[in-house]
């Protein structure tokens, strides 16, 4: 077996590979840029080599720098993770020339299947059903518009070397095709060093389902079931699960066998994924093959018990697969929520900064429940603007889909992240959404169910009553502690009453508390009672309670007169007051937010790529004003209404912070 491998990647996937390498007794080498000098993967590896400045196109995707690190450390093999150089045939060729094993497929398979245009042609030649599209290269935006018209809108504009939603746009008309082509081309060049673009028909109402394959160099190939990846935003997966709630055994078998046949047709070895669009009648159409480990591979590992990274390493070493197709059994159900440094309350725009608090739920595994968190960050670390915004993958497993969802709900509620905007509230909201729970989902789920973006969750009355009861009991505990402070003046001792008024989410609950050593009984004005028990003490940021015998997990921060509580995607200001305090509070004026309607504010920390207007221009509703780049994604900022530009405060090349003023209007 290899004695030392280099991981040509960063973040959670580098940490993931290191864990398996350790288990196998293999030493590891990390590479890092300026921005990653203190990164977790650098700390975990046995050795680490600095390879350049922070931008990926000056460090992680520069083949010569990675090859120099291999030579310096004497690594015998390289695991590329996903993204960066993982599907770069030139990198595989350079490794082969240097006598270094590539923990991935042969360069010929990468060339044939890693390139989306080439892979589509091969699939068509192999009589695999594919989505209509233009497979040739596209020279400019006008040609893109012409081709889009011929295919018929809507169309998908894709980077040939793309992945992870980068270099991808949906266009519904000529203007969007023109804009989308240029943005996709720019993103592709920045992310992959390859700006080739192709266009295909965008199939409405599809499911995105993919098959995991595993092949060795001895002619063996197996499939390890499927993954449902339909919960996507901007073609970027957010929630994945395995198996799919939609497939039957016959369709699964057909898709798996076709995937293996395609892999063997190109001499594929290692782990790979064949992606399909599946329609409502379970007809499936080949999209592409990812010639690498997928981001969402943990859900397959959880339902099969197979360590895919270990199998990749063994195949690269020349070993035969010890698993046959008959050995692959799908056990239970697994969910994955991707934790992104994106603020759902600001249109999911990238968020960077320091993780002032990062406490994932405890990982565990037994016959009834599993929680797993693949991550590459730590409390106190920095989230950089230079890389993908995904910082962790939270996974759950249960014997059934309903149990896996419930375990995920509790895990999301227990995940503490502070210091940056993040999408945990959104993931929690999806887990509770009736349509998701039913399994009746398509790739349009987020677009259809959250057409105005994510504004938080309105919890049902029953849940609010349970939280109000918990808040009252917790407030009473804090009041008792404050009442016990020594050294108070005579006649100034704090008295803790039994009657309280709790307000949250616009609701008012009048309660009376009767406490004992085991907890508190909270009686509401309508006569209902809730029994609350917990070990929470003031200062704890996570409250794990039982209300009427059922588990309730709340993230808790102290605010004046109560708490900030977060639960199931809802962010609540909960005030607990005496009846007199509540009476006075009702008379207070509400603070009005400042008027920013005549300003274009930078919605995220980022780089101004271009400004599309000048002072004095009349702009229309929806007109592009400027483009901001952050975390490898270009974001076009548009006018929300008609107006006239009176002042421009930023120019191309400027780095701006959140809410910096880009331009002003009359």
From TrEMBL:
<dbReference type="GO" id="GO:0004658">
    <property type="term" value="F:propionyl-CoA carboxylase activity"/>
</dbReference>
<keyword id="KW-0443">Lipid metabolism</keyword>
<dbReference type="InterPro" id="IPR050856">
    <property type="entry name" value="Biotin_carboxylase_complex"/>
</dbReference>
<dbReference type="InterPro" id="IPR016185">
    <property type="entry name" value="PreATP-grasp_dom_sf"/>
</dbReference>
<keyword id="KW-0436">Ligase</keyword>
<dbReference type="GO" id="GO:0016042">
    <property type="term" value="P:lipid catabolic process"/>
</dbReference>
<feature type="domain" description="Biotin carboxylation">
    <location>
        <begin position="1"/>
        <end position="451"/>
    </location>
</feature>
<dbReference type="InterPro" id="IPR011761">
    <property type="entry name" value="ATP-grasp"/>
</dbReference>
<dbReference type="GO" id="GO:0046872">
    <property type="term" value="F:metal ion binding"/>
</dbReference>
<dbReference type="InterPro" id="IPR005481">
    <property type="entry name" value="BC-like_N"/>
</dbReference>
<keyword id="KW-0479">Metal-binding</keyword>
<dbReference type="InterPro" id="IPR005479">
    <property type="entry name" value="CPAse_ATP-bd"/>
</dbReference>
<dbReference type="InterPro" id="IPR000089">
    <property type="entry name" value="Biotin_lipoyl"/>
</dbReference>
<keyword id="KW-0067">ATP-binding</keyword>
<dbReference type="InterPro" id="IPR041265">
    <property type="entry name" value="PCC_BT"/>
</dbReference>
<feature type="domain" description="Lipoyl-binding">
    <location>
        <begin position="590"/>
        <end position="666"/>
    </location>
</feature>
<dbReference type="Pfam" id="PF00364">
    <property type="entry name" value="Biotin_lipoyl"/>
</dbReference>
<dbReference type="Pfam" id="PF18140">
    <property type="entry name" value="PCC_BT"/>
</dbReference>
<keyword id="KW-0460">Magnesium</keyword>
<dbReference type="GO" id="GO:0005524">
    <property type="term" value="F:ATP binding"/>
</dbReference>
<dbReference type="InterPro" id="IPR005482">
    <property type="entry name" value="Biotin_COase_C"/>
</dbReference>
<dbReference type="InterPro" id="IPR011054">
    <property type="entry name" value="Rudment_hybrid_motif"/>
</dbReference>
<keyword id="KW-0464">Manganese</keyword>
<dbReference type="Pfam" id="PF02786">
    <property type="entry name" value="CPSase_L_D2"/>
</dbReference>
<keyword id="KW-0442">Lipid degradation</keyword>
<feature type="domain" description="ATP-grasp">
    <location>
        <begin position="120"/>
        <end position="317"/>
    </location>
</feature>
<dbReference type="InterPro" id="IPR001882">
    <property type="entry name" value="Biotin_BS"/>
</dbReference>
<dbReference type="Pfam" id="PF00289">
    <property type="entry name" value="Biotin_carb_N"/>
</dbReference>
<dbReference type="Pfam" id="PF02785">
    <property type="entry name" value="Biotin_carb_C"/>
</dbReference>
<protein>
    <recommendedName>
        <fullName>propionyl-CoA carboxylase</fullName>
        <ecNumber>6.4.1.3</ecNumber>
    </recommendedName>
</protein>
<dbReference type="InterPro" id="IPR011764">
    <property type="entry name" value="Biotin_carboxylation_dom"/>
</dbReference>
<keyword id="KW-0092">Biotin</keyword>
<dbReference type="InterPro" id="IPR011053">
    <property type="entry name" value="Single_hybrid_motif"/>
</dbReference>
<keyword id="KW-0547">Nucleotide-binding</keyword>
<comment type="pathway">
    <text>Metabolic intermediate metabolism; propanoyl-CoA degradation; succinyl-CoA from propanoyl-CoA: step 1/3.</text>
</comment>
């Amino acid at each position: 077996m290899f004695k030392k491998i280099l991981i040509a990647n960063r973040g959670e996937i580098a940490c993931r590979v290191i864990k398996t390498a350790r288990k196998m007794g293999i030493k590891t080498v990390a590479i890092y840029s300026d921005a990653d000098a203190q990164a977790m993967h650098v700390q975990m590896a046995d050795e680490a080599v600095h390879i350049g400045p922070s931008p990926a196109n000056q460090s992680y995707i520069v083949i010569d720098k990675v090859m120099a690190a291999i030579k310096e450390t004497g690594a015998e093999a390289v695991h590329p993770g996903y993204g960066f150089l993982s599907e770069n045939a030139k990198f595989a060729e350079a490794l082969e020339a240097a006598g270094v094993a590539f923990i991935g497929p042969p360069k010929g398979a990468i060339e044939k299947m890693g390139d989306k245009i080439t892979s589509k042609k091969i699939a068509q030649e192999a009589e695999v059903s594919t989505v209509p599209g233009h497979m040739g290269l596209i020279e400019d935006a006008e040609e893109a518009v012409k081709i889009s018209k011929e295919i018929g809108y809507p169309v998908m504009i894709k980077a040939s070397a793309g992945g992870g939603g980068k270099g991808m746009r949906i266009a519904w008309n000529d203007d969007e095709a023109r804009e989308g082509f240029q943005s996709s081309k720019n993103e592709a060049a920045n992310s992959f060093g390859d700006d080739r673009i192709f266009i295909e028909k965008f199939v409405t109402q599809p499911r995105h389902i993919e098959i995991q394959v595993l092949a060795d160099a001895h002619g063996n190939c197996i499939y390890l079931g499927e993954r449902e990846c339909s919960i996507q935003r901007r073609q970027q997966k957010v929630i994945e699960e395995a198996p799919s709630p939609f497939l039957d055994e016959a369709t699964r078998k057909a898709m798996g066998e076709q995937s293996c046949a395609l892999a063997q047709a190109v001499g594929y070895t290692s782990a790979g994924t064949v992606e399909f669009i599946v329609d409502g009648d379970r007809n499936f159409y080949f999209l592409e093959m990812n010639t690498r480990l997928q981001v969402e591979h943990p859900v397959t590992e959880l339902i099969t018990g197979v360590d895919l990274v270990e199998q990749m390493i063994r195949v690269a070493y020349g070993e035969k697969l010890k698993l046959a197709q008959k050995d692959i059994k799908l056990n239970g159900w697994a969910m994955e929520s991707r934790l992104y440094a994106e603020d759902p309350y600001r249109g999911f725009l990238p968020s960077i900064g320091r993780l002032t608090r990062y406490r994932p739920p405890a990982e565990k595994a037994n016959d009834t429940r599993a929680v797993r968190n693949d991550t590459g960050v730590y409390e106190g670390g920095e989230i950089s603007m230079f890389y993908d915004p995904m910082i962790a993958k939270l996974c759950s497993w249960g014997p059934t889909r309903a149990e896996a969802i419930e375990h995920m709900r509790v895990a999301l509620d227990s995940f503490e992240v502070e210091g940056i905007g993040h999408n945990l509230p959104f993931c929690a909201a999806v887990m509770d959404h009736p349509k998701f729970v039913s399994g009746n989902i398509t790739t349009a789920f987020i677009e259809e169910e959250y057409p105005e973006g994510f504004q938080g969750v309105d919890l049902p009355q029953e849940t609010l009553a349970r939280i109000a009861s918990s808040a009252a009991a917790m407030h009473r505990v804090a009041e008792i502690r404050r009442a016990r402070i020594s050294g108070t003046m005579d006649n100034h001792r704090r008295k803790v009453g039994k009657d309280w008024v709790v307000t949250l989410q616009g609701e008012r609950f009048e309660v009376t508390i009767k406490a004992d050593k085991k907890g508190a009984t909270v009686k509401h004005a309508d006569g209902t009672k809730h029994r609350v028990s917990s070990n929470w003490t003031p200062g704890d940021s996570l409250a794990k309670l039982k209300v009427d015998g059922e588990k309730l997990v709340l993230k808790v921060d102290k605010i004046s007169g109560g708490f900030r509580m977060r639960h199931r995607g809802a962010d609540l200001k909960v005030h607990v007051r005496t009846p007199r305090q509540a009476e006075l509070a009702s008379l207070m004026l509400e603070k009005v937010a400042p008027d920013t309607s005549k300003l274009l504010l930078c919605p995220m920390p980022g780089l101004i790529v271009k400004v599309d207007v000048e002072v004095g221009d009349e702009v229309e509703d929806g007109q592009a004003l400027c483009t901001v780049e952050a975390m490898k994604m270009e974001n076009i900022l548009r006018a929300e209404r008609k107006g006239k530009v009176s002042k421009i405060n930023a120019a191309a090349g400027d780095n701006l912070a959140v809410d910096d003023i880009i331009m002003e209007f009359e």
